[in-house]
Amino acid sequence: MLIDVKEYVNRADIASLLEVAVYSDEEELASATHLYTIDSAYQLYALRQEEDWVGVIGYKLLEDDTFQIEHIAVSPEHRDQGYGRALVLELLIDQSPQRLIAKVDEEVVDFYRSIGFVVVSLPSEIPGIEQYLCTYEAEPPTDEA
Known about the structure:
- By secondary structure, the chain is of the alpha+beta class.
- Helix content is 30%, strand content 34%.
- The chain has helices at 12-21, 26-38, 83-95, 109-115, and strands at 2-4, 42-49, 52-61, 66-74, 99-105, 118-122, 131-137.
- It has a 7-stranded mixed β-sheet with strand order 1-2-3-4-5-7-6, sandwiched between helices.
């Protein structure tokens, strides 16, 4: 189950997970922390395994019940154990967005593709770096009589 940690974004254990998501870039970490602190459209959740925070997922709420994943990270000692997938799937279950999107580079596009996101190449904003839009359309609830 995901735990809302937005109000704890400045706490060391949560900040260290967010730091992984921004590749230890201090400016990016400060910017992300600021957004989660002041903007109600930005939400931050974490996954806990016993006493350890294992991962974090942050998103921005867009129009039409669309969530744009802004940050996702799993602590280095918990990688390759399915926690990244769990973060995305738990977000879908707990928050029930109509759509999830993520703008990513080549390094992580296969992660999203493996979960069932549709991947489309984007025009490059940075020469030499491929960018992709990954989209997951949630299935509408079925009415069972």
